[in-house]
Amino acid sequence: MQNSSVSPLTLALASHLGRHWIWILLRGLLAVVFGILAFRHPVAAGLSLALLWGAWALAEGVVLLITAWQARGSGRSVWPLVAMGILGVAAGVLTLLVPAATATALLAMIAAWSMATGVLTIITAIRIRKEIEGEWLLGLSGLLSVLFGVVVLVNPAAGGVTIVWLIAAWAVIIGILLIFFAVRVRGLARQIGDAK
User: In terms of Cα–Cα distance, which of 54, 34, 192, 155 is closest to 110?
Assistant: First the structure.
């Protein structure tokens, strides 16, 4: 904790995040697994990538909605989590229903989703900056998502393998940052438990 004189609401939020750190960890692990699979099979950039990305976005959206549902009584607004979850589910379902969409349309959708969830992740990091040490990891993951979306929009004609590797690297980096953040939140919960 950054301050020894924290409010009961701050303690409640930190304790809640600590109890549910596993969902943050799961989100990070999903991103890393997606990234590794994309690195291993870059030639399958077309339909396979669309289906793989759609499944990942859907799974991440469901995880975020579960997290928001569990955090609803924490005294904090959960709208950023709900919005990110809805975006993930919508992007995943749309991709799985229409996997033959053109590469440019898929890349534009990936870029838009990445930028929107990145902005919402940055907002979340700013909102919890006084409650949790290491919130910069969450903010950095949001910033990288926004930058990734901008790069994809600016250069959609790049080769398929390059785009696959860019998507894979982005997913692995975001996943690792979220895993580290989950570990920090878990440690914070233990500190709170020891202090009681």
Answer: 54
Per-residue pLDDT of 161-179, as tens digits, reads 667 788 889 889 999 998 9
Contact 4, 124 (CB under 8 A): no
Q: How far apart are alpha carbons 67 and 23 in whole angstroms? A: 7
Model confidence pLDDT, tens digit, residues 79-96: 888 998 999 899 888 888
Structural fold of domain 8-195: 1.25.40
Question: How far lies 168's CA from each of 11, 32, 33, 90, in Å?
Answer: 36, 8, 9, 21
From CA 66, how far away is CA 35, in angstroms rounded? 23
Can you give the pTM of this predicted structure?
0.53
CA distance 40 to 5: 49
Encoded amino acid at 169, one letter: A
Q: How many residues does the chain have?
A: 196
